[in-house]
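Team,

Forwarding the record for the chain on the shared tracking sheet. I've put the sequence and predicted structure together so nobody has to dig through attachments.
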Amino acid sequence: MSRIISVANQKGGVGKTTTAVNISSILAKRGKKVMLIDADPQGNASSGLGLEKDAENSLYDVLINDVDIESTLQDTDIKKLKVCPSNMSLAGAEVELVSQMSREQRLKEKIDVIKDEYDFIIIDCPPSLGLITLNAFTASDSVLIPVQCEYFALEGLGQLLNTINLVKKHLNKNLEIEGAVLTMYDMRTNLSNQVVKEVKRYFDDKVYKTVIPRNIKLSEAPSYGMPITLYDGKSKGARAYEKLTKEILKNDEIRNNQE
């Protein structure tokens, strides 16, 4: 059974793409067959894995031009990881989707055709709650929410959770919260520790034990077109994402056993 996870937070700069890229890479290195869908017009997940943004077909063509998702897929330096890339043309898809039939279901319809070929499909959502994000949520089993350890961390999360609940009610009754992951944690500051407590109170048992530290190597890796495991597999950031991926796999195992 394939597991489809959207990585989302409408607040920008919270480590969303970093999380999507590195989880995807580590899952693939652990032998899982993974597809990463770059659903952000900025295309940072694509360039962060060393791919060119001017691909002949991208997610825009899947949503608007009825192109099969397979024809967009690009190989990466990690054997079992493929990417459906994105570029700035996707920004126009928000407007063009408005007049489309079943506009929130477009991505789901395309993913359903090939999802059984993959163990995990990770969707890197844009920093908004528009139609592209709604398409991602409608296609997904769950939403993973990166939360930055900073003063306004919880701002806007109510709106995000409300959107998840609306999608669950009207478009995808099986959608659940995969978990909240704390990012850019700095143990030296009281603020980071306060945010950790607040987020745990807010999400209860849905917060991952692993916390992603503020780490220079994590910031550098995308500019070299590499996930952290290839750029510096011994760094604090790499070790944290390894632990987080382990937690995700363990939760998936527990879920499968319960089913």
